[in-house]
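Continuing the batch. This is chain 6 of the set; chains 1 through 5 are on the previous pages. Same settings as before, nothing changed between runs. Recording input and output for traceability.
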Amino acid sequence: MTPLVEMRDISIAFGGIKAVDGCSVDLHAGEVVGLLGHNGAGKSTLIKILSGAYRADAGEIRFNGEAVQIASPRDAKRHGIETIYQTLALADNVDAAANIFLGREITTRFGTLDDAAMEAATRGVMARLNPHFGPAETRQVGELVKQLKAQGIGIFLISHDIHDVFDLADRVSVMKNGKLVGTARTADVTKDEVLGMIILGKCPPGATPGPGAMAA
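Output for chain 6:
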């Protein structure tokens, strides 16, 4: 089947340092792919490229098999790509609605901000997420991921909790130093093997190695 999203040979550098170096990942409809790796591995940067927050220096993004240009969050939204960040408020000087629509604000036909529309949409999102955050927050997020998956929505899931990833993800893609170590179905690898990918860059037999895999 044609993947819902393909990111091929994506690279981006900041100040001469490659944050993402020739990374390729894909995602199918109704699939959860866990992106794993230490802080600074390039996971968040890769997703920010997909969401239009950054523009890649090289590489290609394909959506349903067609090459697309994602130069802004509006471009990403047009293709149905949304990002939920771990940090609830990206900008603490504005309200929740402004944070959710940051960079892709809804405007009226007169070109002014449509605060009412953004607030209404935000209330819908918060009701779906369940505003009663607390000890059960992780379980609620997990349930939401399962609901979205059942609706045929593809999800890239970034998490440092390998147990959560194995509970929710169909596949895992591990990054190290900006490069892809490898990708595997969670059914084909153990948690210890994935930890070896994260820490050592060692690709186990059940995984497909990437350019960042440690040489045997």
